[in-house]
Amino acid sequence: MVRCLGAMMLPQEQTTLDLPEPQASLWLGLASDNRRLFEGLQDGWLQPLPSRTGSLVGVNSYRREHQEVDGNRIPVRIQIDVAKLPDLKVVAFRNNKWRYITLSQVSESDVAVYWPGVLPLISACNLTVSSDEQRVRLLSIGKRFSNIEVPDVSVASDDNVEATQLPVPPPEVDVELVIPPEQDSIRGAMSMALWAVPRIDPWMRVLTASLSPQSKGLRKHANVVDASWWRFPPWAPTNDAKPNDVQERLWLAALRVLGSNDCPRPGEAADRIAAMALQDCIAYEASIVEAWRLATQRVLRAEAAIEFADWRDRPVELAIQLVLSRPEPTAFKTWFVEDQVNLAPAVAWSGATLCGLYRGYKKLDTRFRGKQVQREVVAVQALRMTSSGTGVSWPYVSDDPPEWRKDNGNFVLSWGGWEFACKHQQERGKWYATDLGIDAVQRDAIALAKERGWPCLSRVMSLREGVRLITGSGMVDVDERTMIVRGNVRVGLLLGDTVEDLIDGEAFRRLVAVEPGRLPVPPSSEGNVKSNEATQGIPGLKLVRDFLTEAEEKEILAKIETNDWSNELQRRVQHYGWRYDYKSRQVDPSMHIGPLPDWANRVGQRLVDEGYLRILPDQVIVNEYRGNQGIAPHIDSESSFADGVAMISLLETWEMVFKKRRSPEKGIHKLEQRSATILTGEARYGWTHAIPKRKSEPGAVKPGNKKPSRIPRDRRISLTFRKVVATIVDPDDERAGSTAGTRK
Amino acid sequence: MRLPTWDEVNSDEEQLNVLETPLDESLFVAGPPGSGKTSLAVWRAATLAEWYKKQIPVVTYNRMLRRTLKLAADDNEIGIDVSTMQSFVWQDYQRRTHNSPPTVPPDPFAYRWQSMIDRLQGTEPDYNSLVVDEAQDLPAEFFLYASRYVAGTMAVFADDDQALSRQRSTLEQIKMAAGLPHPKILGENHRNTPEIARLAEHFHSGRLPAATIRRSHTGDVPRLVRSGSITSTTRRIANEFQNRGGSIGVIVEQNSTGRSTYESLRDKLPGSRVARYANELRNEDSIDVRLPGITVLNKESVKGQEFDTVFILELDRFIPCTSDSELRTMYMMCSRARDNLYLVYGPEPLSTEAEAALPWSDVLER
User: Fold this and answer.
1) The pTM of the whole model exceeds 0.80
2) A700-728: per-residue pLDDT in tens?
3) Phi-psi label, residue A164: left if phi above 0, alpha if psi -120 to 50, beta otherwise
4) Could you give the ipTM of this predicted complex?
5) Which of A115, A581, B22, B175 has the least C-beta neighbours within 10 A?
6) Is A422 helix (H, G, I), strand (E, B) or coil?
7) What's the CA gap between A738 and A628, in Å, rounded?
8) C-alpha A509: how far from its chain's center?
9) CB distance from A464 to chain B under 8 Å?
């Protein structure tokens, strides 16, 4: 059984049973500086210093890596939890002697350990500096780099740094932990594949099968979605691969060229992929490859636009053209959300995965890496898929294949018992899950299939018992099961006879999984939620006047004023329940603060009881807007928060501006003092909202005036209620702490 | 703004020294285009604001740059307060003295610095720190004023290679006026691909050495394109946008070309962001040059901007360069491009002199 989202419902005894005996926690400590830290944080592997084979670390204390910290570098103490490290052979300094033991034999009485090879920082490690100024500076320098995310930093004096040298230098050991170079591109490809996977069942099957040890069932799952080339995942060895067609040939060639370490330029890469695909292929295939090469070169010179129309015949050709046009994942991202929403999932996903392979993990922007648990799992699994990564056994990795399941509109992925990713189901996934037995759903599905010309419809004439008149010059022969028409005939129908469209449910669902284009939201069977103000044009937006009484407003304000404000943004904010990282725009299990305070819980419960929200919110952000402060147009993080966001306005009535994504459509609504504003569905995901930066708000129109008067702004307080998704760790489980994961 | 990876910066000692400068020290940074000064300025202001728990004013040269800084900050939900130097000083002086700053008529922005400085004699700075970007374009007197009356410490970012304005200050003048430490010279280019940087350097004439390229080889060589008409040029720009997306800057010499290019692009790409910026349009607040889409602008407005792809149109009007300032313009325009660069001329062939001013085909593909 996997413990996570549903874990809160388990009885308390049961959750404690499967945990190991509590033991004094052991950690290894390294005192170094910000530069070494950043070097290691890029991909989580801290290489030994030049000319060393390993790192000397303290046991429950810190060992200094350098004698002095140069210039203005920031001294940083790094703490690594022993339970998170593989049980390698190490040398420990015990009773004034070096002894060869394994990591699991290290005890508190050991003074230091010599760690053989690369030191893993892939688990959330604890960092400590000596002053607040250093802390602000360290976190702030970290924000300058696209591929670094600095974990929490605490401030403490540095008394536990061992300044004295050991009487005997550590002996040489065999290097145990080596990271082979191909690990980086494999890990990049895996990360991008996880980031971009189409959120619909058949693709989840392809993804998880592709990550399984022997790619079990992969061929079958890939064929279901017409993506046969996926039977060669970028992370599996392809030496013996036998391509069946030219698309598979190009795919295999792209895996080799884009996954190689010398990173050719796009134009060069196209030539090399073509040359490799041409090996041993027949003349007909060779002409396709050569035509692709020339077309790709024209695309790269902007002489032609990529031709998407015949994507069915050349999906891999297009995927590679996409990657070569946008070799950086950040630019690739807009293919999905802005420029080419009409990409077929097979093309988009294959392209994104190749993009990760080309870029590699070390250079990959942190936003594509997923949450902390995913980073750890992917690091170790990618390492295990390399030639030399198999020998080391990691404490939280198993040989089980990854799994997926659906939970409350999300796809939850787990591997070896660790739930590491949670993907919000989008329109495709919702259509896939709809029940075509419901009339309204079937009607919309038929309309959609007709509009897109999908081959899953048939027309059926249903005749009641009786005689029909046949006219026209043709002839009709009818036997028990067939009706043969020669020439043209007309059949007169009786009242009650119908001609209707029938939909083949299985074909429809397959088309939902493979066809390009953004889909409309499927009809839902959920009840209507009430709203007391019309918000035409923005489906899913509700404005509820006087949601709070004046007394409640006063009481809540009083509570808020007694709490500390955070100054991390231009405006002051308070976070309850969970902290939110404005840089990475996500919530990590380590950011859980605790349960909501009483007042917030009461308001959250009322939002649910009165039908405005479906799930009880567990995070509240209080925003204070003063004078001309505002907030830029944004959509609340889709990966962090569930559907259903409520904003409650206190103190003043200000306007909010809504704008539809990729459209000039706009809407302006007053957020009345004490009102609740609810965003669900399209209003939540398809529209940005903003508070304009200005000094005044429009007031009432006075008699005789055409324009409303302006009321100067003073102060507005907004309470945002949201539900954190992918609550991977049981928030009540203190033992899980910042390690962000629980085991089977 | 694109952030570098750690490996792209880890051997850039000067940049690291800038990043590691303690928060209570003044900072003076100079560097060529692409070394990331603007983004460092935003970053420093945000860091100082977090440390002092108070907003830190940021001052720059023109409105388009102010917009760029603001957007860079908004991106990260960083609160900074950006003004042009003219308006910052006007408001600061007005607030302290309840008088407008004295000016030399007829120019309402030609401040009489000496009399302003004299008038404020004996008053104290009321900000913890001040951040200045594009300092080379600001008068040295401003730095005297700022260091005495505005802030206790300053973080000043300058470039003495691309000054296009009349009021320019040298690094030495800035240093003396503001009482700053020696400038840290950023010597590395984190913006352009090596392929683009090599073309830009072909036009390099500045006093600072050309930057060392830090980005890895991921881009193709810049291309020289002859185009028969505005329509064929804009078709290519539209292709590029459809294929690569991202932000595209189209630089023109004449406003009339800018207008017709803009109109043709707008017709070809309905539903995408196509914008034209010109100083007289005063429309910078409605443009976000970093968003996916196309911005048409002239050589003056493109300064300080950065695009994924740049098309320089009317190349025949920019080369051959007959002065240092024309070379600087070519250098500055080429170095606006991060990943892809096209030089476009036509319909007439290039003159022999213009042809001779261009590098070989290994640097500029034909």
Assistant:
1) no
2) 766 666 677 788 899 999 999 999 875 53
3) beta
4) 0.85
5) B22
6) strand
7) 38
8) 24
9) no
